[in-house]
Amino acid sequence: MMTEAKPSVLYVDDETNNLLSFKAAFRRQFNIFTADSATAARKILAENPIQVIVSDQRMPQTTGIEFFASILEQYPHPIRILLTGYADIQAVIDAINLGQVFRYVTKPWNQDEIVHHLQEAYQLYVLKAQNRELTEKLIDNNSKMEFLLRQQLLS
After folding, report:
1. CA–CA separation, 34 vs 23, rounded Å?
2. Which residues contact 140 (CB under 8 A, 6 or more apart)?
3. How far is CA 52 from the centre of its chain?
4. Please, which of 13, 40, 66, 125 could form a disulfide with 56 given CB 3.0 to 4.6 Å?
5. CA-CA distance, 70 to 147, in Å (whole number)?
């Protein structure tokens, strides 16, 4: 099913230093893509299979929650992590309800904590992909069994 050597993670943040730090810190364990805007992130999503998306909450054109909500229909499968320097309970609620966020992490991040969250997110991605595949097989097998049963009833 999933045969990638390293999970692909997209990090979205308007601050270049944060993008560079994130890539430097996590590039050994993950295939890191970075985007400085929601527009750049959408382009990366269109061109690459991404399993985990990490977004900063406060960006000039859009918030992380708004970005997650805007891509949900087209890219429902990547697991989402919201990263913010601000403690805002409404943002947490919106992240869960609107952006379907898996984790809410505060800045400055703890490297070991982020690695743990990224690994958990990837494991969840894999489990959901396996679940979708098994569900498709089950539906296909049920259709075949129904066909065979109808054939048997008709004969």
Report:
1. 7
2. none
3. 4
4. 13
5. 40
51-76 pLDDT, tens digit per residue, is: 999 999 989 889 999 999 999 999 99
Is 57 within 8 Å of 48 (Cβ atoms)? no
pLDDT > 90? residue 146 = no
Q: Tell me the three state secondary structure of residue 47.
A: helix
Coil, strand, or helix at residue 10? strand
Q: What is the DSSP string of 70-137?
A: HHTTTS-SSEEEEEESS--HHHHHHHHHTS-EEEEEESSPPHHHHHHHHHHHHHHHHHHHHHHHHHHH
Q: What is the pTM of this model?
A: 0.84
Contact 23, 11 (CB under 8 A): yes
**What is the chain's length?**
155
Phi, psi of 87 (to 5 degrees): -90, 110
Contact by Cβ (8 Å): 8, 94: no
Q: At what angle do helices 111-154 and 16-26 cross, to 10 degrees?
A: 70
**Residue 95 pLDDT class (50, 70, 90 cuts):** low
pLDDT at 9 over 90: yes
Q: What is the pLDDT of residue 21?
A: 94
For 32, the token pair is: 């890191």
